[in-house]
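#struct-pred
JK: can someone run the complex with 6-O-phosphono-beta-D-glucopyranose? inputs below
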Amino acid sequence: MKENLRQVRERVGEGGGKGVRMAGSGSERVAVELCKGINGLDKVVLRGPRGSSAEVYLYGGHVTSWRNDNGEELLFVSSKAIFKPPKAIRGGIPICFPQFGSHGSLEQHGFARNKFWSIDSDPPPFPTNSKSFIDLILKPSEEDMQKWPHSYEFRLRVALGPGGDLMLTSRVRNTNADGKPFTFAFAYHTYFSVSDISEVRVEGLETLDYLDNLQNKERFTEQGDALTFESEVDKIYLSTPTKIAILDHEKKRTFVLRKDGIPDAVVWNPWDKKAKTMADFGDDEYMHMLCVEAAAVEKPITLKPGEEWKGRLELSAVPSSYCSGQLDPQKVLQSS
Ligand code: BG6
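RT: done, structure tokens with the ligand placed:
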């Protein structure tokens, strides 16, 4: 059954704890709440039944926090992040659309991450087993259409699963009335929080081809071992498996990414020199973050009028186990 705007607002709750409450436990946890964030920007707080939470700013449709049941923050947001238009928030999960990178006439990584999104009062039916979710929508203004002359509806659902998993679903529809198709690139530019970048390994990208942004986008093939990090990295891995694991040795934590409809994966860490050139990023913060971004870059997506594209990302954080002194990523990658 569809909700109207009033029902959505009731479900979401505004500031005073009016939103959806957890069933059964008698708990006062509000599952979805609209409140004010930094600089008075609107944000939606999602709360899971056992303590997990997520925060989504309407500015950028931008997830800025994802906490596990113990309240530990799993995403990196820079201490210098500027929560003010037109700068995108440094950290969390910026949405890159309709462009990835800085080629072409649009701003770097497109405009979606620095637009104000709305709460979607009329989302198409989309089943969920979660009470903690929010549907956002972005549509172009007339001014936007001068920069990118296309009409679209971009729907973003952010949901917190009962086990604390974070699920993002993007649906882009071509609503052009002039019969014209459009083409776009996309990324969930996810900044993971890690204890120490030199202790981190990424599994699932071995032996794949990648474009190296640090070498004029030249194409190379990755070697057979897990990725480790000792200098700046900015690579677009092509047509990757749907599952990628980030193993944080020191934290004994593994992030598992599952993606659907989003073929590529970008791996980025600016390291020390580039960090110093970024005004909204601390000099040493590169040690505590890693971007692994589900992306559609190499083969941009084309939609005819009326067509819709869907791209899904599911993130979970699981305790890592040791096997002969090593983390055992295969266990994580093989289990469903
Ligand atoms: C990565 C790109 O995804 O984002 C990098 O591959 C870029 O080339 C980085 O430097 C950060 O981009 P921005 O626009 O958020 O500073």
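RT: quick notes.
The domain at 5-334 is CATH 2.70.98.10 (Beta-galactosidase; Chain A, domain 5).
The longest helix spans residues 5-12.
JK: thanks, will look after standup
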